[in-house]
């Protein structure tokens, strides 16, 4: 037998990503190398149409050492550029310190933190913000501290440290109000609402968003108004008040239509998509997500936002039984995550792919959950993300009537959600466990 | 410059092909800075029986596309023309009425033209638009031969669970004969064939024709499961045998007792695991990971691979002793290209199957769509055909599956010398660039696979891609 054509190209067999990552120690200094390795990985061409093709995950993609070597100067350039931004910000902070300009010291340190966040390093950003906050505490003008605390609150939310985030926003709000810093106060209220939302404290979230909205109405700032209406819409939807959710989202859209905030429009449309999906108006939901994607195209590049919308679209297609389209959308999201150095978001992508296989009663779908768990351990170390995988893994096993395994995974999810304070998700795990016992 | 692009001959959707009186609905997506494009088209609209509407930005264009039915979209590309092109092709895929795309740019390049062609874009025009160019493109749409519906032929098939064996080609008849011979025995079988040729379906059919058809058929895809999990998947594990072994697990060997264990993509197994499989075959017993007790397992083994196992043995990647244990009887499956008219039978079978699944009433396929299927190089064989037809059935709206329902790259493949306006024959370089572009589209941009199809070294291909701006 002669499978395939003769191979004059005879390129060396690529090294599999899982093997390549095994050889790379867990050191911060090689993190950019890890990111480059992942971003240039490609699926094994021979596997694309093979029966293992549908189960392809990051670990089974391949990487050519020669290509890695070739792309190194580009990576070095990016690393150097990033370091330059950080070092320059630090020197600027020192210069400001020398001339006694405390506000600029804080601003420079915050710039460094924002630069870290832009390249997906929230933990490092947190350190810069902490330094900024310490520097701001001695200043007479409290606005730099409001800003530092706001930044700390935001990064805590990104790291899913909700209680910590709420603490920063509380302090930020108190200071902002005493300084009549309306923008700072609105941002703090929004942050507090978001932290409460994630922890399932609906009335708390409602109160904070409403307070932020009142402040925003006084300021007349359309972007803030749009954002807070959207947040209220999301909250109302989670509480099951779909009519109110629709009204808030409509208002959010109205506020934002006239602004140039394409990213905010995308978020509103994405929220509208979720609402339509909950109302089982699937065509309208799909249209809202597609319109959101069009806005993303016009906004400053934000692959994280695009990825979220694509996953929402895929989930919608999954729910409506359009499995082929769902899988295609998931693969697009996977490619986007890999190419944009959003490897930690692959956890979500693979969890959803596993869910898809569960719908098809395909036992081999467990490979996606295993890959997602590997990624949680390897890249993100976020118990909340891991808990989410275990929850879906448990539901997958339940679908396949593997009750013992389902129970073990659901219990693990419940435990992890409990430790990070994600009470809504913990309740979902609890409900699934009760259903299993019934 | 009028870009020397494809003369895509797709007919417009049926509702706009009711004679000259029917107005073609055109949506023009041009930013406010390109308002002149909308104005020009509106001026030409009366002469050409067009209904023209403008959308000042992308989101509003998407909204209009969702809300109404359009025949044609004229999209003015931004400086990121390549990305815009891909985005538009993607966006139109889900749009009502499957509108065709004409792209317009003020900065055309050969690379962009070829990319547009490979994506199945109707035409790429240069800004400012010239009436003759636009009406020429429109005329090609209107004068395209109406696709003739060909009724789907009746197909006999041999049901294999939720799958089926379809085909009457001589190559498949040879396969059936061999299957009939090995089925009733309990012999171990090795099935070889390229990806997507139907190895698992054949394995299932052999099991169902065998003496233990009532017993389980358990399939394991050795390439899909990570190496560190494959052993426990095959042999099972005891609780606590390793981190993550949260419960005792019965492996696939045990699940298959009394029936058939199908080891798909067996060449992808590590040498260590090959040794354990060999032991299980020889001794007819296994041990769970973390367990000390041997467990007797009486199973029929069917293995499959898309690799050349003899070459793998020569390279030291596959155990020779295991090969001879597995290849008691070897069945080689033909590629789709080797199956002649089975393509039409498989097409009819899949279209009916998916039409039923998705609640469509598709009775026929157009002659042009069938030609496109016949001319495609099916690297993924029957699996690829099935995938293409499932997608086509999903997007089809009427009772005929047309060329427009096939993936865009299929229509890109259709561009030929004959499509060129008179006196505009291709240069050798253009022809080469087009062919490379088509092959790259076919392999989803995979350079290695494209180089293999073209029969050149990947470095040569990379150089040519750079040269032609692909």
- C-alpha Rg of chain A (nearest Å): 23 Å
Span between N and C termini of chain B?
A: 19 Å
Q: State mean pLDDT of chain A (0 to 100 scale).
A: 90
Strand count of chain A = 2
Q: Oligomeric state of the chains?
A: heterodimer
User: Order of strands in the sheet with the most strands of chain B?
Assistant: 2-1-3-4-5
Shape category of chain A: globular
Summing up helix and strand content along with how strands pair, one would put the structural category of chain B as alpha/beta
Number of helices of chain B: 19
Largest sheet of chain A: 2 strands, antiparallel
Low-confidence stretches of chain A: 1-9
N-to-C order of helices and strands of chain A: EHHEHHHHHHHHHHHHHHHHHH
Radius of gyration of chain B: 27 Å
- Give the class of chain A from helix and strand content and strand pairing: mainly alpha
How many distinct beta strands of chain B? 19
Which bin fits the share of residues in helices of chain A? over 70%
Largest sheet of chain B: 5 strands, parallel
- Main-sheet strand order of chain A equals 1-2
Uncertain segments of chain B of ≥5 residues (pLDDT<50)? 1-21, 415-424
* Overall mean pLDDT of chain B: 82
- Our estimate of the beta-strand percent of chain B is 15-25%
Molecular structure report:
The complex is a heterodimer of chains A (438) and B (470). With 438 residues, chain A is mostly helical. Chain A has helices at residues 17-22, 31-39, 65-98, 102-118, 122-136, 143-158, 162-178, 182-198, 202-219, 222-239, 242-257, 262-278, 282-298, 303-319, 323-339, 346-359, 366-380, 383-399, 403-420, 423-437, and strands at 15-16, 62-63. In chain A, strands 1-2 form a two-stranded antiparallel sheet. In chain A, helix 10 (222-239) runs antiparallel to helix 11. Chain B has 470 residues and is an alpha/beta fold. A 5-stranded parallel β-sheet of chain B has the order 2-1-3-4-5, sandwiched between helices. In chain B, strands 10-13-16-9-17 form a 5-stranded parallel β-sheet. Chain B has a 3-stranded mixed β-sheet with strand order 6-18-19. In chain B, helix 17 (428-442) crosses helix 18. Chain B is elongated and about 85 Å long. Mean pLDDT of chain B is 82; it is low at 1-21 and 415-424. Chains A and B meet through helix 13, helix 17 and helix 19 of A and helix 2, helix 15 and helix 18 of B.
């Amino acid at each position: 037998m002669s499978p395939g054509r003769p191979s004059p190209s005879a390129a060396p067999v690529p090294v599999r990503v899982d093997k390549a990552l095994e050889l790379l120690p867990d050191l911060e200094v090689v993190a950019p190398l890890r990111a480059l390795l992942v971003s240039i990985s490609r699926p094994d061409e021979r596997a694309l149409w093979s029966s293992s093709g549908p189960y392809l995950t990051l670990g089974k993609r391949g990487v050519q050492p020669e290509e890695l070597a070739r792309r190194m100067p580009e990576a070095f350039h990016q690393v150097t550029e990033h370091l330059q931004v950080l070092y320059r910000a630090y020197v600027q902070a020192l210069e400001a310190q020398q001339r006694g300009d405390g506000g600029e010291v804080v601003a420079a340190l915050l710039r460094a933190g924002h630069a870290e966040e832009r390249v997906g390093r929230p933990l490092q950003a947190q350190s810069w913000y902490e330094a900024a906050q310490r520097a701001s505490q001695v200043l007479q003008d409290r606005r730099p501290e409001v800003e530092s605390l706001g930044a700390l609150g935001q990064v805590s939310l990104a790291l899913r440290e909700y209680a910590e985030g709420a603490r920063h926003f509380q302090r930020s709000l108190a200071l902002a109000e005493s300084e009549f810093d309306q923008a700072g106060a609105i941002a703090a209220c929004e942050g507090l609402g978001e932290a409460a939302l994630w922890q399932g404290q609906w009335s708390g979230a409602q109160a904070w968003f409403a307070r932020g909205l009142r402040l925003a109405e006084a300021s007349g700032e359309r972007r803030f108004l749009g954002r807070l209406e959207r947040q209220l819409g999301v909250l109302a939807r989670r509480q099951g008040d779909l009519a109110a959710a629709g009204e808030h989202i409509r208002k959010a859209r109205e506020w934002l239509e006239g602004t140039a905030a394409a990213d905010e429009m995308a978020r509103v449309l994405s929220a509208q998509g979720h609402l339509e999906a909950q109302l089982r108006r699937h065509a309208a939901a799909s249209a809202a997500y597609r319109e959101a994607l069009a806005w993303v195209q016009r906004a400053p590049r934000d692959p994280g936002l695009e990825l979220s919308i694509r996953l929402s679209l895929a989930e919608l297609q999954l729910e409506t039984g359009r499995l082929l389209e769902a899988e295609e959308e998931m693969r697009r999201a996977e490619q986007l995550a890999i190419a944009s150095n959003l490897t930690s978001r692959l956890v979500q992508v693979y969890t959803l792919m596993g869910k898809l296989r569960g719908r098809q009663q395909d036992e081999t779908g467990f490979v996606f959950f295993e890959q997602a768990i590997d990624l949680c351990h390897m890249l993100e170390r976020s118990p909340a993300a891991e808990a989410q995988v275990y929850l879906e893994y448990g539901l997958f096993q339940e679908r396949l009537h593997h009750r013992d395994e389902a129970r073990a995974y659901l219990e693990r999810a419940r435990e992890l959600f409990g430790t990070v304070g994600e009470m809504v998700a913990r309740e979902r795990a609890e409900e699934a466990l009760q259903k299993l016992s019934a | 410059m009028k870009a020397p692009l494809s003369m895509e001959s797709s007919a417009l959707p049926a509702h706009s092909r009711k004679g000259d009186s029917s107005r073609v609905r055109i949506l023009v997506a041009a930013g406010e800075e390109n308002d002149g494009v909308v104005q020009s088209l509106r001026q030409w609209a009366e002469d050409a029986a067009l209904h023209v509407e403008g959308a000042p930005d992308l989101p509003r264009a998407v909204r209009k596309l969702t809300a109404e039915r359009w025949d044609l979209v004229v999209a003015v590309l931004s400086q990121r023309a390549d990305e815009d092109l891909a985005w538009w092709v993607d966006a139109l895929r889900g749009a009502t009425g499957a509108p065709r795309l004409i792209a317009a740019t003020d900065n055309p390049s050969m690379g962009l033209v070829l990319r547009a062609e490979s994506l199945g874009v109707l035409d790429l025009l240069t800004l400012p638009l010239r009436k003759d160019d636009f009406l020429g493109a429109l005329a090609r749409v209107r004068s395209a031969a109406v696709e003739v519906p060909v009724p789907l032929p009746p197909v006999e098939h041999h049901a294999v669970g939720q799958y089926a064996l379809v085909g009457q080609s001589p190559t498949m008849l040879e396969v059936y004969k061999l299957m009939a011979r090995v089925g009733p025995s309990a012999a171990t079988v090795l099935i070889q064939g390229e990806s997507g040729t139907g190895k698992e379906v054949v394995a299932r059919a052999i099991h169902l024709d065998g003496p233990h058809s009532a017993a389980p058929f358990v399939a394991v895809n050795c390439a899909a499961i990570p190496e560190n999990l494959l052993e426990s998947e095959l042999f099972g594990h005891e609780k606590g045998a390793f981190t993550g072994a949260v419960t005792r697990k019965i492996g696939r060997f045990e699940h298959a007792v009394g029936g058939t264990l199908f080891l798909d993509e067996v060449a992808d197994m590590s040498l260590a695991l090959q040794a354990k499989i060999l032991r299980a075959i020889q001794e007819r017993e296994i041990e769970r990971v973390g367990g000390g007790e041997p467990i007797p397992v009486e199973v029929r083994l069917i293995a499959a691979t898309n690799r050349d196992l003899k070459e793998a043995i020569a390279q030291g990647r596959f155990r020779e002793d295991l090969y001879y244990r597995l290849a008691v009887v070897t069945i080689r499956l033909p590629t789709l290209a080797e199956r002649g008219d089975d393509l039409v039978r498989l097409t009819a079978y899949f279209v009916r199957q998916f039409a039923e699944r998705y609640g469509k009433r598709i009775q026929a396929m157009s002659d042009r769509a069938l030609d496109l299927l016949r001319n495609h190089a099916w690297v993924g064989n029957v699996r690829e055909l099935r995938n293409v037809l499932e997608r086509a059935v999903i997007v089809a709206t009427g009772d005929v599956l047309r060329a427009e329902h096939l993936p865009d790259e299929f229509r890109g493949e259709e561009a030929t010398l004959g499509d060129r306006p008179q006196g505009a024959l291709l240069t050798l370089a253009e022809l080469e660039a087009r062919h490379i572009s088509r092959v790259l589209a076919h392999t989803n941009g995979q350079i290695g696979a494209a180089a293999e199809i073209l029969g050149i070294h990947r470095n040569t291909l990379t150089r040519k891609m750079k040269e032609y701006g692909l």
